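ok so for the tutorial part 2 we go from a plain amino acid sequence to predicted structure tokens. step 1 is just haveing the sequence, like this:
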Amino acid sequence: MKFSKKVLSGVLIAGLMGTMMCSTVFAAGAADLADGEYTGTIHFLNGNGSGNASMCDPIFAHQTDITIEGEDASIDFYVAYPVPNFPDQGTDGTVKDVQFTIDEVTYDAVSDIETKPEKEFDTAGALFGINAGDVLPVQVLSVTIPKAALDEAAEGGIAATAYVNVVMNTTQNFFVQIKDLTPAETTGGDTETDEQSMEITANVEEKVSQPEYTVTVPSSVSMGTLSSTEDTEITYNVDVKAANLGGTITVSAPGEGSLVNGENQLAFANELENNTVNADTEGTALPGKITVKGADVAAAAAGNYTGTTNFTITYAAK
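step 2 — the prediction. this is what the tokens look like for a chain of 318 residues:
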């Protein structure tokens, strides 16, 4: 069944004449309350003085937190925010402009819609989508009244008004009942706990590998008399020693070059079969080979040929 907003408003206003009785005598006089923190129950009763619970009472969590200091009582109470069945309404507060009136003096409640703590609700309100036992986020309302007025509140006698910002969208009259005050739970005794912090700093020294290595390339090699019918080859070794290596040594050289006699040139090939070392070693020989082809020798002019090749040594840390 769907209700229009106008019909719902009528239902709510009619509901203000409900039959729930909520009057209970306050157990002790307000004058007997020492300074400190208290918890209690709070209900919003019909503004007609019948003593019955207002239809709006289920949207309020019935826990209240009170601080007594001197002759003042600071009261925190809580209303569902948002109301489950109307999440798009009352975005700036489920209730607004809440005032308590005591001896013709008004006391304005301060609204907090940012903190949104969660509170348990003990009364079902089907219209609002609230079930007994629900834990819901709330709007916090805070008001400070004379401590002596708590005697009046225990009998549901503090007059209050609030603009109900969901469904009704009107200012409603209530009588506020606050009872069953008990000291709030504490850690016991007069013990005070003080927390202090200590910053701890420490450095872990970076361990930088400091490799030690030597690479020895023969300063010269002689190929002797070259054959013009067969390829002439000569082998050599590049010697490597390494400690604390922590990486890889690579030895490289051009794969070919030229031997020169004046204006005459003779090609040669240079091959390194294994040109890397990646572990500490007392001595590793990297074999190399230089080759001159017989066919090139047959076509070359006679004479003494010399040439140079360059080796590149590279270290890369892991």
